[in-house]
Amino acid sequence: MNLSKIIVLIITTLFISLSCTEKEPDPKGTPEYIAEIQQWHQKRIERLKRDTGWLNLVGLYWLKEGENSFGSSEENDIKFPDNSPPKIGTIILKDSLLTFKSADGVDVLNNDIKVTDLELKDDLTGTRTTLATGSLRWYIIKRGERYGIRLRDVESPILKEFKDIDIYPINEDWRIEATFIPYDPPKQILIPNILGTTEEDNSPGSLSFTKNGKNYKLDAIESRNGFFIIFADETSGKETYGAGRFLYTDEPDSNNIVTLDFNISYNPPCVFTKYATCPLPPKQNYLHLKITAGEKMWGEKH
Hints:
Tumour Suppressor Smad4, five-stranded mixed beta sheet
């Protein structure tokens, strides 16, 4: 066979291969519904990029009882990134009381006002205290009995690198009506987290739904205006994050019907940063179902 025939054969084979490549399905649903989900996704991207979003987390440091000095110098109890002052100050933890004292010559701001000595409120109080110097922002988180510093850098390089999150094609078939089955009394369920610990949470009931002729059930957690669902499925660890995804719903209607719209299921913050403390799905919320809706994995971690 001469060279020209070999080249033609190769080109033909490549053409056939590309032609046989499975095309991703088009969005399915009314134009209004598709636009609604696209708008939700765009707002999700914008929230991630905000100063309060998950993309700019650059540190998580657990505090010990007593004094905890921090800054970029190795001499501190806690070493901040190199773009911070050598010593920013000290956080004193005494029982559950936290106090910040700044180092000399360092401008630390709270609500744009310079502070040198301040009592700190953690994130679970609803009135957390945020401190700032330069492009760094930090506040106290409480997880169980532990207190830690969560650090952000509003000029973190990832903010420039981050563009979007892949999602499955929008498909209104994944907008499913579920029946809310109350627990009386509410059931205590175990919620593991990425730190390796487990906490109990109240589940007011389960959400029962049918897909492809099979029945499935998810334990719900009460949220401000409805339910919060942490779930994993047969895409987890393959096309989506291995530790599951999150989904919020509205409250049940008068017939105890709740809409589960898996097109707005999304990645937990641990996908984007190792400094988040994500809850994981309770074992009963691992579904033997491939949910091809919502956000796919971001980055290389599964």
